[in-house]
Write a structure and sequence with these properties.
This protein has nine helices and twelve strands. The two termini are 30 Å apart. The protein has a domain at 3-95 and 173-253: P-loop containing nucleotide triphosphate hydrolases (Rossmann fold), CATH 3.40.50. Strand 7 and strand 8 (124-126) form a beta hairpin. The protein has a six-stranded mixed beta sheet with strand order 6-9-10-3-11-12, with helices on both faces. With 257 residues, the chain is of the alpha/beta class. The radius of gyration is 19 Å and the shape is globular. Bound molecules: adenosine-5'-diphosphate and magnesium ion. Magnesium ion (MG) binds at residues 51-52.
């Protein structure tokens, strides 16, 4: 367990009284939440509770209409997803945005390919050897095996694809991964792989905000659980001692304090 790490570490991300309205629709109100390094926070709530809206605030897609965000102790006001990524916050969407026909190594570096000067004319060429090597090293830090960095991503299992998406985020120096329904399309075995991946991030000090409909996922990997209901944080508690049934009841019945 990481009681020491969690107890002492300064929060990575702190939300204080955050609100978001879409015109007249109030999607979030007075949400205060912090996430520490190496911590997995499950974010649950019914359809329309505000989960995606909260993710979009943190990921820089929308700006809060009230409240403040802090990241690594400093005010955090991303003007777009690029700001969030540069700060170290990566969002892994349900559809992983991988290129199925390209090999694993190339997916890790898509849009940020390593280049070197060619020996012949000094012109930049892709440094494939370096990307393969760095891809291998990044994947080896994760809890599930991706045996061959030359395989097209389309031939991998769902769990392995998640590993590729996570490795890519880590190569971009992400300190917080937001995962949106990572197991929604997966079978039992792949779901187990993804849970192992998420748990393995703790040792690297990477935090995870896990959005999931699957209460089993959440109780299996989260340290704490945040429950949203009609845009308000109605429960925030340690996952220890919660099982999927109790969490589901909390989602249905918790009331704003
Ligand atoms: N782009 C938008 N424009 C207007 N209303 C929106 C928009 N996105 C979400 N909402 C509303 O905000 C509330 C929260 O939605 P959302 O954050 O998507 O919840 P969840 O992800 O928990 O299902 C809902 O009432 C939803 O209808
Ligand atoms: Mg949503």
């Amino acid at each position: 367990m990481t009681v020491g790490v969690q107890g002492e570490a300064e929060p990575l991300l702190e939300l204080e009284g955050v609100a978001l309205s879409y015109g007249p629709v109030r999607a979030l109100a007075e949400v205060s939440l912090s996430i520490r390094a190496g911590e997995v926070v499950g974010l649950v709530g019914d359809n329309g509770a505000g989960k995606s809206s909260l993710v979009k605030l943190i990921a820089g897609v929308h700006r809060p209409t009230a409240g403040t965000m802090r990241w690594q102790g400093r005010p955090y006001a991303p003007r777009g997803p690029k700001d969030a990524l540069e700060a170290g916050i990566a969002t892994i969407h349900q559809h992983l945005a991988l290129a199925p026909r390209l090999p694993v190594w190339h997916n890790l570096f898509l849009g940020a390919e390593r280049v070197r000067k060619s020996l012949l004319f000094g012109l930049p060429v892709l440094d494939i050897a370096r990307m393969r090597r760095e891809a291998r090293a990044a994947l080896d830090r994760l809890a599930i095996a991706v045996p061959d960095v030359d395989r097209p991503v389309g031939e991998l299992s769902g769990g392995q694809r998640q590993a590729v998406a996570i490795a890519r985020a880590l190569l971009w120096n992400a300190r917080l991964l937001i995962m949106d329904e990572p197991t929604a399309a997966l079978g039992v075995r792949e779901t187990a792989e993804v849970r192992a991946l998420i748990r393995g991030l703790e040792a690297q000090g990477v935090a995870v905000l896990l959005v999931s409909h699957d209460m089993q996922d959440v109780v299996a990997v989260a340290h704490r659980v945040a429950v949203l209901r009609k845009g308000r944080l109605v429960a925030l508690r340690e996952a220890a001692g919660l099982d999927a049934d109790r969490l589901a009841r909390l989602v249905m019945t918790a009331e704003a304090a």
